[in-house]
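#onboarding

Welcome to the new folks! Below is a worked example of what a typical request in this channel looks like: someone posts a single protein sequence, and someone else replies with the predicted structure as tokens. Don't worry about understanding the tokens yet, we'll cover that in week two.

Example request:
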Amino acid sequence: MLKSSNKTDVNTTELIISIDAENFEAAVEREYQRQKKNIQINGFRKGKVSRKLAEKTFGEGAFYEGAINSLLGPEMDAAIAQENLNLVDSPNVEVTSIDKENGVEIKVICVTKPEIEISDYKGIKAAKNVNAVTDADVDKQIDIIRKKNARVVSVEDRAAQIGDEVIIDFEGFFGDEAFEGGKGENHPLLLGSGQFIPGFEDQIAGHNVGDEFDVVVTFPEDYQMSDYAGKEAVFKTKLHSISYEELPEIDDELVKDATEFDSVEEYKADIRTKLEEAAVKQADSAFENAVLEALIAKVDSPIPNCMFEQRIDEIMASFDRQLQQQGMSLKLYCQYTGMNEAAIRDTYRERAEGEVKLRLALEKIVELENIEVSEDEINNSLGEIATANNMDVATVRRFISIPEFTADMKVQKAVELVKENAVVEEAAE
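Example response:
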């Protein structure tokens, strides 16, 4: 039973749970009976050892741990429910006293969900700037089909220059010793792409087909392979070929062949329309982000650090899954980047803290605004998921926690409420 409940910190409650001697004794007896079949002592058949002998041999508390564990779960759940505590982490349990005459007393430290104070969430001001679409923006899109229809021209009468694509052999050396990963044959390289170590591509420029030469570079101090960082290397290089792309002129004939349009004018008009629509979406997204960032800044209530750590755990798990889909492990990623897992976690800390604060703020707004979702809304959303994944709604329901799904829908409604009530400020030039 719950003996006492004390709030020891902002988001921490200490529960004292007592189990009387009678219930404790009954639990000890049940634990003995559970373990009895496996108890063996010299001179006695397995399973035939009395409790008294077992306790004399193994100690009076031989069955205490199992007995306490069998009682603690229900007692602790009842105490937490009685105090209406919303836990955000596993409780810390400590047995403070135990004996046959007085029973057991247990201290349970509970970290609870913080009570967020949020106000002025309506009328948040943020800039909204829709970027104008220029002729240069349209031309960049036009260049895409020009590149797709480009002609590759081989160069024999001049030296390589930035912008050319070359085919090279190379092998890297530290002094007289070749190093691992520094060799390539018939390797294509677009000069000016920044694919190689700074300075490498510039030294290819100026050489002609058939030239053999040394490229001398220094690995950056922050190079991902620490054994190479800061070292000077010589790459023995041979230039096999030089080529460049010759882009066709944009005309009605090219547009007809490469697109669904009949003229350059029609194609450009369509590009401009799509770019303008994208600019509006981008501005809307930036406005929403700015509004939500302002909402996050309004959260100054103390938040248990475990909530941030849990969110980082979730982000790290997602990152690990992405790496696995690319055929890479987190361990290998750490080797390539020179980072350890703790350092990677730190890069996500600010993001995690913002996401936790935002979720808490939105959940508070749901409460303040009495936001609800109807059964029809839930079914419609589940139907969309089912259609997108070629499943039926019943199957989706088996894979989704409906209470969590409903909570997420309420939070999204809170996002829309905050956005709808936000004020657009004139964007700075």
